[in-house]
Amino acid sequence: MGNFVIADRETDYLFPPSMQDWLPEDHLARFVVEVVDQLDLSELTRQYAGRGSQAHHPAVLLSLLIYGYATGVFSSRKIERATYDSIAFRYLAANTHPDHDTIATFRRRFLPQFEALFLQVLLLAREMKLIKLGRIALDGTKVKANASKRKALSYAHAKKIEAQLQAEVSALAAQAEAADQTPAVEGLDVPAEIARRETRLAALADAKRKIEARAQERFEQEQAEYEQKQARRQAQRDSGKKPRGREPKAPLPGPRETDQVNLTDEESRIMPVSGGSFEQCYNAQAGVDTETMLIVSAHTTQATNDKQEVAPTLARLGALPDDLGTATDLLADTGYFSRANVQACLGSDIRPSLAVARDQHHPCVFDLIATDEPVPVTDDPVALMKHQLATQSGRALYALRKQTVEPVFGIIKHIMGLRQFSLRGLDKVSGEWTLATLAWNVKRMNVLRAPV
Fold first, then answer.
1. What is the pLDDT of residues 413-434, one digit of tens each?
2. What would be the CATH architecture of the domain defined by 131-148+269-426?
């Protein structure tokens, strides 16, 4: 006969089981508990009144959320179930079982506090000698909103439906007035039908107002950019130079027929995604330290492109605690390039490496080994940055961007599984993105601390 390990499910434990025996010493769940135990959670605990039945401690709920986001379990119902089915989640919950409503309420209630906890985790990484700020690679990725693009209402369709409903209301009102002379249609409740259409008309009017308000914001921004371009071209004419390129067109006010609002999550936006399609998304931004791949700056935006995201990133980098060090370089692709962004980086004492154009996929070998051109004699910061990017050292520095921030997004979206937000609204999505990046940092710190 074979020599098999006995599988005995009937005999009781001779000694009480210990949770410390459940997981390997280097398991991520153990490290999550170590990190959370070192965080200052007083801002969370003081918001509990202490009345009624005993509440689950914020340290337990936070540990469950961090480990859940780090391992691709985002649903509060799945986290609750995992406290029964998963050894790691059972260890994190200390063999208790918070229900899904408790977990969801905790996440929603303390979204604003996650940013402070994000900073505390970075400071802990600094104490563990895992990070010191230097070169930061910035990029953005489109994450699907908790809304379908099929629930988006365009301005043109809103006007079409509005006209149809108004015509139906008029016809129903005329039929009601003529009810004394002609018999009413059997089964038709005219007042109820009119009320239903008036409710839909009110909703359509509200949607149109939101589209028109967004259009006005866009017009004001485009008008300011147009005036800046015209001022630069006029300055060139005044200096005796002929402006290059086509004359910029003045923007037109008012909404466009294709402008939309989503009826499920009105703060999300239709955005282009990889593959050439469009989805209802938010634009999630992350600034990543090139040495450690830890995220040091995170925010979300409704903007489809990244042109306006350098300033918020610089503000967040400037607000980081001094103990983390000082950012020296900002690396970003051509989507972030503008003269204003270059000047903003220099104004923050950060050297910009913002790609001016897309890199060639197959550059000539002689271009790669060519001798660096001499530094141009100019005070133009853009010209100086272009020269720096063209040097061998500049190319090597910029190459760090692609191998730093893009793998981080790849792991967050395809390994951790955050391809769609669970919450709705820009503020809530921002909090959820902060929680996800916090979970990434804890996951990454667990790898960095491991002996080589």
1. 999 999 999 999 999 999 999 9
2. 2-Layer Sandwich (3.30)
